[in-house]
Amino acid sequence: MKRRPSGGLLDRDRALRFSWDGRTLSGFAGDTLASALLGNNVSTVGRSVAQGRPRGVMSAGLEEAHAFAQIGEGGATEPLVRSTGVELYEGLVARSLSIRGVLSPETDSGRFEKRYAHADVMVVGGGPTGIAAALAAGLQGARVVIADEGPELGGALLRDRYLIDGRPAAEWVRAAGLMLAGLPEVRVLPRTTAFAALDQNGIVLAERVSQHLPIADRSGLADRRLWRVRAKQVILATGALERPLVFPDNDRPGIMLASAARAYLHRFALTPERIVVFATNDDAYRTVFDLHDAGVVIAAVLDARDEATGGLPRKARQAGFEIETGAVVTGTIGDQDGVLQAVRVARLAGGGERLVPCDLLAVSGGWDPNLNLHQQRRGATRWDDRLATFLPGAAVPMQTIVGAANGRYGLNDCLVGGREAGLAAAAALGFAGTVVPAPSAGDEAEGEHASVWHITAPDGDESRSFIDLHRDVTVAGVTRALGAGVRHVEHVKRYTLIGTGVEQGRSAKVNAGRAVAGGIGLDFAQVGVSSGRPPAEPVPFALLAARSRGALFEPVRTTPIHPAHVALGAVFEDAGQWKRARYYPRPGEGMSEAVVRECLAVRNGVALMDASTLGKIDVQGPDSAKFLDRLYTNRIGTLKPGRARYGLMCRLDGVVFDDGVVMRLEPNRFFVTTTTGNAGPVMEWMEQHLQTEWPDLRVWLTSVTEQWATVPLVGPRAREVLAPLVVGMDLSKEAFPFMAVKDGVVAGLPARVARVSFSGELAFEVSVAWDQGLALWDALLDAGSAYAITPYGTEALDVLRTEKGYIIVGQDTDATTTPADAGLEWMIAQDKDFLGKRSLERPAMQRTDRKGLVGILPDDPGVVVPEGCHLVADPNEATPMTILGHITSSFVSPSIRRSFGLAMVTGGRARVGQRLYAPMMNGAPAVTIVDPVFYDPKGARRDG
Amino acid sequence: MHPNEHALHNPEFLWRNPDPKPSYDVVIVGGGLHGLSTAYHLARNHGIKRVAVVERGWLGNGNAVRNTTIIRSNYLRDESAALYEHCLKLWEVWTEELDYEILFSQRGVLTLNHNLHEVREGHRGMYSNQLNGVDSEWLDAQAVKEFCPIVNTSADLRYPVAGGTLQRRGGIARHDAVVFALARAADRLGVDLIQGCEVTGFDIQRGRVTGLVTTKGRIGAGKVGLVGAGRTPLLARMAGIEVPLQSAPLQALVSDIVEPMLPCVVSNALHVYVSQAHKGELVMGAGRDPYTSYAQRGSFHILEDQMAAALQVFPIFGRVHLLRTWAGIVDVTPDASPIVGITPVEELYLNCGWGTGGFKATPGSGWVFAHTIAHGAPHALNAAFSLDRFETGALIDEHGASVAVH
Amino acid sequence: MADSEGMAVRLQSLPQATQVGFRVTLASQMSAANALGIPALPGVNRFIGAGGLLVLWLGPDEWLLIAPDGMVEWESRLRNAIGADQGAVVDVSANRVGFELSGPAARDVLASCCALDLHPRAFGPGGCGQTLIAKAQVILAQTDLETYRILVRPSFANYVAAWLEDGVAGVQGHAKADL
Amino acid sequence: MLLIRCPWCGEREETEFRYGGQAHIATPRSDVDDASWARFLFHRDNPAGPFAERWVHIHGCRRWFHIVRDTLTHDITRSYLPSESPEDAG
Ligand SMILES: Cc1cc2nc3c(=O)[nH]c(=O)nc-3n(C[C@H](O)[C@H](O)[C@H](O)COP(=O)(O)OP(=O)(O)OC[C@H]3O[C@@H](n4cnc5c(N)ncnc54)[C@H](O)[C@@H]3O)c2cc1C
Ligand SMILES: NC(=O)c1ccc[n+]([C@@H]2O[C@H](COP(=O)([O-])OP(=O)(O)OC[C@H]3O[C@@H](n4cnc5c(N)ncnc54)[C@H](O)[C@@H]3O)[C@@H](O)[C@H]2O)c1
Ligand SMILES: Cc1cc2nc3c(=O)[nH]c(=O)nc-3n(C[C@H](O)[C@H](O)[C@H](O)COP(=O)(O)O)c2cc1C
Ligand SMILES: [Zn+2]
Asked: What's the average model confidence in pLDDT over A582-606?
């Protein structure tokens, strides 16, 4: 095509250079990549996927089925971008694609952000219909969002020469745009595509914020923005998409949609020399008029209909154009590069062919309302004979479809329909404001649309008659599918791949359905088209992730003592979202050395750890004890104020859910701790039962996990370290025994002190207000310095508690473990009901061959058998072997100076004394099954 | 492979489109993968000639064409490992047996572990797999990088990659081709595939099923197998059986096609799994929606979260485009293991509950279910997967193996 | 945290305060209000500021009192007013920290990470809600036309601040991508 | 992606809630037989159509409540308190 010296919606003062496959070309501001290529006489923009045929630009918008390019450089390289939607910018780098996109490993500096928005009325589409709708609703005072994928409002009016109120439509668009901009509650979003329609009128938009700007001007701006709109009413004014026709060699560069030919003229000032127009409906006659007026030779006007009686054909005849009705294109001829040179023309009724030379063939097979968003909501469609297409069927609640999207192709219809929809949507929400008169346009009487879609190849070879240009699927391909016995369009899609490309069958689906119907002699209305799904337009992954990347991806939760751990050089582990200190290596130490040192400090001296991540729940009310008795497997109600008890909870199915310490602070007030991972779930579980099962109980819960920072001070010297820090708190064994709780003051801080111990050593667990946690830590460290107080981490804790045979829920247990399996049958109160108890009575829960917790001692005391290893009786058995259980915790114990661990094995403690093997790729170490308590079985140290 | 080439593998003939006969020895309800596989094995392994598959829509319209096609057998429990490994062995011979290029590709399934807990569980699974004769190996972060260089193994990540377990024999197959291949194979063995035929009721006399009420009329049946996946609760209710299932949406998505770069990579902690289909599109899945639904669409926030998660592991995918999303309705059991066996109704058999992970089971599911139907009693491989385990409490918990569903 | 000073929006940390959570039966709600010197406890999605106190609705039987730092006596005062059998009162002063986001663009910043409709027709001064900022639960209260308070658990504070700062950078046009 | 009306706080995005499964399931006495207990633990209705279900406004007011949602369309027709029955709710 050639660029005309003037005209179009281009800024001729701003010439832009861009690169195409390494060549530097130029265009103007206002161009798309597609129009700029056409303006540079690049008619072949890529090769077809399967057959390698040359392909050009076939549309000027959303219909595009072939002209996809790879754009950008480095980390911003974006594959498969529709070149009819890429606005040209200075320095744009674009490449034609060799089938697949190529990704860049470089870092992408583009910012993709997200915005939530709420609207009374969301209007999708900024053509005449959408503008009229937004204006009407906006003037009523409604909160309106209107989005259009183009750079400016106008839709079809930008490509056509309509009059509104007797003046060029562009003037109305401009005036309406100004009015919209002046309404404070209206948000106009150009360059914004609605790509997903969700339940309850959630509309998701992709805004191109800076993609059209030269790279240098983008800094500080988002590349794209994801809008999550919730709208009370949605108006779909998404227009209609023109449909191509199927005939031999219908895929050459130089063949384009009739409306696209007008768009390239009116928007981009591009014209061919000689054009053939081939249509099945009236609208394509606008192409005849407009291109003729622009000086293009109209080589032929072919109308597949037997008669063309609508207003536009009549006008064309009056203007002296020769219209051939019942005439069709039966083939095309290309030059050595495959670019269109001439078309073969014949009458549908038969007879000879003639050749008509031309450099552009404009085709129009009719119009398909753009209903992807409606289909995403599972909105129905129905076949319409007169327009030979699918129109919206039953409405989706709170959603209206208007204008060309609703099969109303007259501009006046669009303007009136849009305005009425806008008014109705606002009125439904109770708005009553200014009503401006409707603009009007004189609509031509529209003739019927022919249902012709395919011109049979005169030589019977349908392998060059393309239905899906993107996936290179032809009529022959569909025929082959039908021959295989396939009947349903969805099967045809999957057999041929029609509609599975980037354009998702927008231009191919209806013709594919027709091919199927024709092939098996069924009514097309019944055959239908394959389904539409989100997104309506492809969007980059990064847009959906938006800012949820890097530091914003997910919270890193830390305790108030975290800075101290960092300063001590702690190595951290992730426990859910928390960071916990795993161990504190000193110079020259690896993990095992550090852990041994930390363990020994606990056992022989004094040590402290940060246990602030434990979940904490304050339980108050006269029925608290009754409530906790229903939750825990063991009795809580008998607990005396000032005392604590280890508690265990099951799920309803009897599986161990969580464990923790329950403290009774006052007769009607408890303080419950949970494992770090279950802080939320236990709170929810409790709240759920109070609200839904036992609303009669007067119990109130408050999550206080982050009200309290907790530091266990542990070891035989703990009492000595703590003593000088407390005032009026008797720490003696008699006054403050194991499992007692006291409120008081520690290091000048209001504190709660509990004699609980997970390590089996003398321990005082001190809790203070969260924001005083660090002060407490420092004070304890300070007070302990004379005793070589040692911070210890979760790894040492794990060793210490394993020595005591204490389980960690989720490590030594899994989703099948009952309390008895975990060796905690003593915690099951027989004389009360609790959640999960009934499930424990089922036969499979009572079997004696269930897995049970045991200890293991490897034969070789220097070998730590890895956690997760499975145990068998016969290490030489062929696979599949008879697996008896697995090792759940496994360490070296500094206290018993050898490797040891815990395991779950069938039969549990009945196997004590047996020798089992842990086969791995490199050997099968033997272990002896022992009782799971390795250290201080009587608990004398803990109680000390 | 060339993006369109696999369409060319489709053979000239797939199936007849017969009208239903008045009665069959066995009628299979549900023309998904498991229904087709059952019918095929009834004819192939048990010589039962008069078999029909009745399908309310088109063959495969349910989860068969919606799944992300990950195939592996590295399940935790012994019963599961035996069953899924049986399936994997069949996959290894299926292209030949079915005489159809189903593009089974053993490119490996790598499950990433991000924290100590996951590493421990990963090892537990690996060791149990090895003893069960299922291949599984541990890769540390460095080996992960070598196996799949585009995985981000940087220690700065919120959830850095600590390592992972790899099943090299795992992989993918072309889902549509498997539907076509099985349907063709069953059709060749004389099975009537009756599409557009919805079962709306059962003839049950004195506790025994004798036929089906369908939208194509009554069809007599000596035995009936229910293989309705997500719609099983609706079917079971018609037959008066209660099933412990939840029907919930599970989404998946594909990108436009990019240069090949990827085996199958799963991250449970991040709730995302990615593979690359033969054409070159990235295929990605995430968690299921929590609620009951038959609407075949999922929630958008799951997409957003899964993209954020995917870009943690694969920052290179930032500008790849989301091309299409969809959802299937999966039949989830309380223990994440299937139910394959007899029911309280005589000669009515049930195969369901494969939930988010039954594609990989297609060959073996049909194999054992055909056995169960033919003999009126389960095969050793599916004996534990009975309906009554929910009453006795003998569940086969596989939640760990299917945290991120695939 | 550094204050983000810019054209249209400002984010700062709020000083420490006494916070007391209370859950109370219908029967004792008036007594609680009397003790707080307000005519009634605030209703759904609202808060009341009176005499240096803020009382925020958190749920149908749950409110949060925010008083100047150090006024711990509010815990016992409220407990006495409510009565031991009619509810629970808990000192939660350390359980949440606060931010204030103010300026004409404050609402836009929140729209980058919070799905709540904060349009004056839907929310406005006196509005209060528990909701999410990105993945963190917060209490959001609007104190005047252009000022919001955000209360969040301390372990989520850095994360929420990072989101808000990113939102501020976004509206101020000096955003970074920093992945 | 649902928009759910909490009977207390009003309409909020699905992400603020947690699903609680079928509503109006009574906990049986603990002396029922294993079959009835299994039914209570595991069997839910899964209707294709309106379904009364429980949700909790976990990131908001933390109240449990019920809605009636159509499992075919995801349309939500009612939102009501646990103390109400699906019929008498408005
Ligand atoms: C998004 C997604 C991703 C998945 N990813 C994987 C994966 O990576 N790996 C894996 O192994 N598994 C995966 N799965 C699971 C897998 O798809 C299913 O477990 C498996 O396909 C179920 O078996 P099916 O193919 O027989 O089911 P379906 O194809 O659903 O078959 C059931 C059939 O029964 C028919 N039917 C129902 N009711 C009636 C009736 N009344 N009358 C007649 N016919 C009826 C249905 O129409 C349907 O065709 C995934 C599933 C989904 C949804
Ligand atoms: N006579 C005919 O046969 C015929 C056929 C079709 C259209 N028309 C003319 O076209 C015009 C139709 O007006 P209209 O306003 O209904 O449609 P339109 O085509 O003018 O406008 C629709 C707008 O919606 C945009 N859009 C579509 N999908 C979108 C999405 N998902 N997100 C964002 N934007 C999206 C498009 O870019 C376009 O700008 C009238 O002038 C009519 O006369 C005539
Ligand atoms: C492994 C796999 C790969 C797919 N690849 C594509 C693809 O390249 N293009 C496409 O449009 N759809 C692809 N799909 C999705 C299907 O088009 C379709 O969405 C899916 O089968 C569900 O059907 P429905 O969307 O009609 O409900 C793929 C699906 C699967 C399971
Ligand atoms: Zn609420």
From this structure: 98
pLDDT-flagged residues of chain B (< 50): 402-406
The Cα B388–Cα B82 span in angstroms is: 20
Is residue D54 within 8 angstroms of chain A, CB to CB?
Answer: yes
Rounded alpha-carbon distances, angstroms, from residue B256 to A258, B130, B278, B320, B348: 28, 37, 12, 7, 44
Residue written as tokens 């036309």? C145
Strands B23-29 and B51-54: parallel
Ligand 1 centre to CA of B349 (Å) is: 17
Which domains are delineated in chain B?
A: 22-106+171-243+334-406 (3.50.50.60), 107-170+246-332 (3.30.9.10)
More confident residue, A944 or A577: A577
Fold of D3-80: Folate-binding fold (3.30.2270)
Q: Does D37 touch chain A (CB under 8 A)?
A: yes
- Residue C27: the pLDDT is 94
DSSP string, A440-471: ---PPPPPPPP---B---TTS--TT-EEETTT
Going from the C-alpha of A272 to that of each of A256, A302, A311, A321, A323, the distances in angstroms are: 11, 18, 26, 18, 20
Q: Which two tokens stand for residue A616?
A: 């904490």
| Mutual angle of helices A591-604 and A794-803, in 10-degree steps | 60
Q: Tokens 């450089």 label which residue?
A: A73
CB contact under 8 A, C155 and A578: yes
- Mean pLDDT of the region A93-111: 88
Helix axes A489-496, A475-483, angle to 10 degrees: 110
Closest CA to C99 of C39, C12, C15: C12
Query: For residue B97, what are its two tokens?
Result: 């047996």
The answer to whether the CB atoms of D53 and B291 lie below 8 A apart is: yes
In terms of DSSP H, where are the helices of B4-114?
5-9, 33-46, 78-98
B341 Cβ closer than 6 Å to some ligand 1 atom: no
- The mean predicted confidence, pLDDT, of chain A is 96
Contact flag D73-B295 (C-beta cutoff 8 Å): yes
List domains and CATH numbers for chain A. Answer: 1-106 (3.10.20.440), 112-240+370-428 (3.50.50.60), 244-365 (3.50.50.60), 461-527 (1.10.10.1100), 562-612+708-800 (3.30.1360.120), 615-703 (3.30.70.1400), 847-930 (2.40.30.110)
Is it true that the peptide bond before A190 is cis, omega within 30 degrees of 0?
Answer: no
- A698 vs C85, C95, C134: nearest CB: C85
CATH classification code of C8-13+96-172: 3.30.1360.120
Interface of C with A in 137-176 (CB under 8 A): 153-156, 158-159, 162-163, 166, 170, 173-176
D63 and C44: CB-CB below 8 Å?
no
Residues of B in contact with D51 (CB under 8 A): 292
The topology under which CATH files domain C17-93 is Alpha-Beta Plaits (3.30.70)
Ligand lying closest to the C-alpha of residue A242: 2
Place of tokens 């016995």: A485
Would you state the pLDDT for residue A319? 96
Provide the shortest C-alpha distance from residue C94 to chain A (in Å).
Answer: 5
Flag whether residue A491 sits within 8 Å of chain C, measured between CB atoms.
no
Centroid of ligand 3 to alpha carbon of A34 (angstroms) = 28
Per-residue pLDDT at B200: 98
CA distance A558 to C133: 18
CA angle A712/A715/A721 to nearest 5° reads 75
- A520, pLDDT greater than 60: yes
Q: How many B-D residue pairs are in contact by the CB < 8 A criterion?
A: 58
Q: What is the pLDDT of residues A146-196, one digit of tens each?
A: 999 999 999 999 999 999 999 999 999 999 999 999 999 999 999 999 999
Are the Cβ atoms of C45 and D60 closer than 8 angstroms?
no
